[in-house]
């Protein structure tokens, strides 16, 4: 993302793109060789991973799989607001 | 994309369509067993944009059937 999205927008984008990925996944479960659906899935799955990486870089890891950078030398996972706290995701 | 096909044909269209004498009617269902349920095979088409899809609860325009209280067809 060239311009850096604010936390809320980035989270909204992650929600939307994650939903689309799951929808494509469910369709592919019954249509495994549908090329269009497969292309759609890979495209949005990549977008989702990029968005998660970006979120982790700027706002702290959202999921445990994106703690690579931020928790390299210290377990900074605990510095981020917990989901139930103000500012939590 | 909004003009996605909606196969929930309202009942009165269906009735008039099949009003001719039974013999003349080419019934596509005549080789199908009675009292069985048939689900048409879904194809990948009419995909919503992701933000709208999240809002509508599906990426498929054809499956976007909000409850409207009457007739169940999307306005």
Task: Give a verbal description of the structure.
The complex is a heterodimer of chains A (about 90) and B (about 80). Chain A is built from 2 helices and no strands. Chain A has about 90 residues and is mostly helical. Chain B has about 80 residues and is mainly alpha-helical. Chain B is about 20% helix and about 0% strand. Chain B has 2 helices and no strands. The longest helix of chain B has 7 residues, at about 10-15. The two termini of chain B are about 15 Å apart. The interface of A and B includes residues 23, 30, 31 and 34 of A.
What descriptive keywords fit this protein?
heterodimer, A: 89 residues, mainly alpha, 55% helix, 0% strand, B: 75 residues, 2 helices, 19% helix, elongated
User: How far apart are the termini of chain B?
Assistant: 14 Å
- Largest sheet descriptor of chain A: none
How many beta-strand segments of chain B? Answer: 0
Percent of residues of chain B in helical segments? 10-25%
The string of secondary-structure elements of chain A, in order, is HH
The biggest sheet of chain B, with number of strands, parallel, antiparallel or mixed sense and barrel status, is: none
Structural class of chain A: mainly alpha
Estimate the global geometry of chain B from the Cα principal axes: elongated
The largest contact between protein chains, plus residue counts on each side, is: A-B, 16 and 10 residues
Average predicted confidence as pLDDT of chain B: 77
Q: Identify the quaternary structure here.
A: heterodimer
Radius of gyration of chain B: 16 Å
Contiguous uncertain segments of 5+ residues of chain B: none
Strand segment count of chain A = 0
Q: Which percent range describes the beta-strand content of chain B?
A: under 5%
What structural category characterises the helix and strand content of chain B?
mainly alpha
* CA-based shape of chain A: elongated
Counted by DSSP, the helix tally of chain A is: 2
The helicity of chain A comes to 55-70%
């Amino acid at each position: 993302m060239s311009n850096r999205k604010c936390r809320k927008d980035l989270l909204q984008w992650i929600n939307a793109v994650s939903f689309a990925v799951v929808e494509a996944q469910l369709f592919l479960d019954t249509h495994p060789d549908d090329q269009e659906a497969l292309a759609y899935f890979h495209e949005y799955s990549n977008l989702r991973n990029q968005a998660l990486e970006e979120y982790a870089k700027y706002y702290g890891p959202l999921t445990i799989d994106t703690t690579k950078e931020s928790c390299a030398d210290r377990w900074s996972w605990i510095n981020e607001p917990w989901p139930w706290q103000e500012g939590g995701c | 994309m909004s003009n996605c096909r909606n196969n929930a044909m309202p009942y009165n269209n269906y009735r008039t369509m099949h009003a001719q004498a039974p013999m003349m009617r080419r019934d596509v269902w005549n080789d199908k067993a009675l009292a069985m349920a048939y689900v048409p095979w879904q194809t990948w088409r009419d995909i919503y944009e992701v933000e709208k899809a999240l809002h509508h609860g599906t990426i498929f325009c054809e499956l976007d059937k909000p409850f409207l209280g009457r007739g169940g067809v999307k306005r």
